[in-house]
């Protein structure tokens, strides 16, 4: 479960008529909860809960198209990377390591409202 996902990003782009093409990047923050069950060969089941708050980076790009003087449509893709985490756990007499790679991508569409827009 992702409890929250936040980022602080900068954006640099080029205005080409009604189009705005841009790249973006910055720092990202995520808080997650993992609930899972392990059944060992000898005992079980064992229930575990593991939560993390991580800081990583986000990069991506997008395009906006101006459909009216104060409105534009946008499409943006972002890649988040929070590294990987390892947790050493024991289920009965059996130790194991839970490894999680925390990276994912998002795509979003939006409608933007512009105030005193120059593009």
Task: Throw out a few tags for this protein.
mainly beta; five-stranded antiparallel β-sheet; 119 residues
What does this protein structure show overall?
With 119 residues, this protein is mainly β. The chain is built from no helices and five strands. It has strands at residues 2-16, 19-38, 46-68, 71-91, 94-113. A five-stranded antiparallel sheet has the order 1-2-3-4-5, with no helix packed on it.
State the distance separating the first and last CA atoms.
39 Å
Q: List the secondary-structure elements in sequence, H or E.
A: EEEEE
Low-pLDDT residue spans = none
Strand arrangement, major sheet: 1-2-3-4-5
**Residues in β-strands, percent:** over 45%
- Report Rg: 21 Å
User: Which class best fits the helix and strand makeup?
Assistant: mainly beta
Total E-strand runs: 5
Q: Biggest sheet, open or closed, and with what strands and sense?
A: 5 strands, antiparallel
Query: What value does the average pLDDT take?
Result: 87
**Which shape, going by the Cα principal axes?**
elongated
Number of helices: 0
Helix content: under 10%
Task: Offer a quick outline of the entry.
Helices cover about 0% and strands about 85% of the residues. The chain is mainly beta.
List strands and helices in order, with pairings.
Blueprint: E1 2-16, E2 19-38, E3 46-68, E4 71-91, E5 94-113
Antiparallel strand pairs: 1-2, 2-3, 3-4, 4-5
